Structures are given as structure tokens and as C-alpha cells.
Amino acid sequence: MKALHVITGLGVGGAEQQLRLLLRHLPVRCDVVTLTNPGAVAEGLRADGVRVHDLGMRSNRDLGAVPRLAGLIRRGSYDLVHTHLYRACVYGRIAARLAGTTAVSTEHSLGRAEIEGRPLTRGTRELYLRTERLGAATVAVSDTVAGRLRAWGVPAARIHTVPNGIDVAAFRFDAARRRSTRALLGLPEPAFVVGGVGRLVPGKRFDVLIRAVAALPGAWLVLAGDGPEKASLRALAARLGAAGRVRFLGECGAPGAAPGIPEVLSAVDTFVSASREESFGLAVVEALAAGLPVVHAACPAIEDLPAGRVPGATRIGSASGAADATDELTAALLHRMDDGHRRLPPPPAVDHYDIRLSSRRLMDVYAQAVDTAPVPPTERAHP
């Protein structure tokens, strides 16, 4: 089988990094097309030996992208097109249909009221549903997302849940890595350090995390990620008198960036995801694999599992106002500080989200999609 993955962009982000990791484990020849922004993850994919095309899409209304993409699909003789993220799903499914190729789409970032961090509008939803029918299957990264798709009107038979996955071994705790990373970041060895990972955008509520850490004089904070809120978050830390205890690392998932996320997770003592809503919660799973206690708000990766599968995880309210959420998080972190630098065995949930298992599940979706795809008229046997 030969597959073409189409994604909106290849800057450092959860869906983009997940695609790169997945391609290392799919037993399929894969190429990648990015509609725009061939960023750091494109460099990483090329380093992995994956061919990456930049479609050069100029705007959301660059309709010429559709025939360009359809032509690329035809020339590549792909058996399957797999699209990722909203814009790529809309344009990619249309292009695949024009090229006569089966399409599968993964829904990475569908929230209750947002998609990829932007408010959901009626037009956004209608365009999604109209083009969703052009594909053979839609993959949800969690049961929570699958439920949202069904509520939108996507037929249940077309929805397949394939959770995001991680390379479990890469995040295993290492004491030497902890010491070297703390020295690199200027973190005192005895300090209690909180970690956060993600795009610095309002929905991640890193402001709540900074306020909670600022209220605990003995706590430090390491934030891995970049985004439009970076300057305002720095200003908030300074205003609260906590600037000296907060480390802003920028993007840590880019090729060659130091430290990487596994190093960051080795260096911290507890992990927080205060996001208002999530479609999965990949960073939380990575933290669990590193043996970290976790404090989380919305996190389908935990909430979709049977109760008791994730000991060491503490949930705080995801819909609270900023003041209430800060108080609740501060109390949870104070409790973690009382436990000190305790590491936990990775819970069973971590193995459930192994990337190898995700790869096998996705291959089942591919096989079903290709087997049930209608045969083009030119390929039908003549009587």
C-alpha cells in the first residue's frame, strides 16, 4: 500500500508531531503534503526519510490548491489519502475524490465549542460535514471526539476510534537526565518543579498555572511551548513576582531543540494540564509514562478509561472561572508538594496508548476503507 498524508501545516504541534511518530511505525510507504507552513516537523520528517511536498497554499480561499493536490495524488498513484486537521480534511477529501482515490481523515482537535483552538461556527460545521461524506472513514483520536462527531451527525459506522500514541520507552524516567536538565535550566536540585507543555494559547489556561505556582513560594514552573500568549504570560509572571521561578523554554519538539520533552519531564516533579477542553491530552500521557503525578482539567485520554486505570491523576474543574480554577489548582499542587519528589510506576493506561498499538489499529481502518471503496469505472472488468 502507498499512502499520502495531507496536513494543514508542519510547525511544531501535537497533530504534527503525532504524524511524524506514526509514520515511523506504519508498515506502509508514505509521503506527506503540507498545505502551508513547512516548518520544523517537515525538517524532521525529511530527516526520517519521508518525502514532503509543500503545496504553497496562500490562504483559506486558495481554491487552486484543490486541482494542484488532485494532480499530485494522481501522479503519485496513491492507494489512499489520509488527511489531518480541518483545512487539510476539507481540501484533501475533495482532491482525493477528484483523483479517484480513497480518503481517510483523522479528527485531532474537535472540542465542544472549538476546533483547533478556534470557535466553532455553523459554517465551519456545515463545510466539515459536507466534505466528510466524500471520505471512506473518519478517525477520532478519543471516544470523546467520536461522541462529538456522532452528535454532529456523522454516521457511527463511518467513525473509528484510534487513540493517539506515544513511544513509551522514550519517556522513561532517568535520574541522570533529571540532574543534567535541571542544571541546564538553572533549577535548584531540591526545588519542587511543576511542568506544563503545549501551545501558549488562551484555551490551555497557562495563566491559571502561573497564578497557582506564584501562590506557592517554594514551587518553580517549566513551560515548554510557544504561541501568541507568550509575552502576556511572561508579563503575568513578572507582575506576580514569580518571574525568577518560571522558565519559558519555547518549542521543545523541534529537531535539535534542547532540552526535549522527555528531558523536561524527567526534570519536573508533577505535571499540569489546565486546558479548558481537549480532544485527547497527549502531553498528559507522556507525563504518565515518565512516572509523574498529574493534575488535569479536561483530558479524554484519562476520562475515557475505566475508573482506577490512572492512579496518581487528580482532576480539577475544567469549566470553573479563572479565580476558582486557580484556587483549586493551588490546593492540588500544595498536596503534591507535600508528597515531595515521588515518582510513580507508569500506569496501565500508558501501554494502552503505545504508538505501535495505534499503528495496528490504523492499519485495520486502512484495510477496511480500501476494501470497501468503489472500483472506478476504468478498472471494472468488461463482460
Using only CA atoms, what is the Rg?
A: 21 Å
> Poorly predicted ranges (pLDDT <50, ≥5 residues)?
377-383
What's the count of strands?
Answer: 15
Q: Largest sheet, order of strands side by side?
A: 3-2-1-4-5-8-9
Task: Name the assembly state.
Answer: single chain
Put simply, the count of helices is 15
Major sheet characteristics: 7 strands, parallel
One letter per element, helices H and strands E, the order comes to EHEHEHEHEEEHEHEHEHEHEHEHEHEHHH
Give structural notes.
The protein is α/β, with parallel strands linked by helices. It is 40% helix and 16% strand. The chain has helices at 14-23, 40-47, 65-76, 86-99, 122-132, 143-152, 175-185, 206-214, 230-239, 261-267, 282-289, 300-303, 322-339, 348-352, 355-372; strands spanning 2-7, 29-34, 52-54, 80-84, 102-107, 114-115, 118-119, 137-140, 159-161, 192-197, 219-224, 246-248, 270-273, 294-296, 313-315. Residues 377-383 have low confidence and may be disordered. The strands form 3 sheets. It has a 7-stranded parallel beta sheet, sandwiched between helices. Strands 12-11-10-13-14-15 form a 6-stranded parallel beta sheet, with helices on both faces. The longest helix has 18 residues, at 322-339.
Which tags fit this structure?
six-stranded parallel β-sheet
Describe what is shown at a glance.
With 383 residues, the chain is an alpha/beta fold. The protein contains 15 helices and 15 strands.
Describe the protein's topology.
Layout: E1 2-7, H1 14-23, E2 29-34, H2 40-47, E3 52-54, H3 65-76, E4 80-84, H4 86-99, E5 102-107, E6 114-115, E7 118-119, H5 122-132, E8 137-140, H6 143-152, E9 159-161, H7 175-185, E10 192-197, H8 206-214, E11 219-224, H9 230-239, E12 246-248, H10 261-267, E13 270-273, H11 282-289, E14 294-296, H12 300-303, E15 313-315, H13 322-339, H14 348-352, H15 355-372
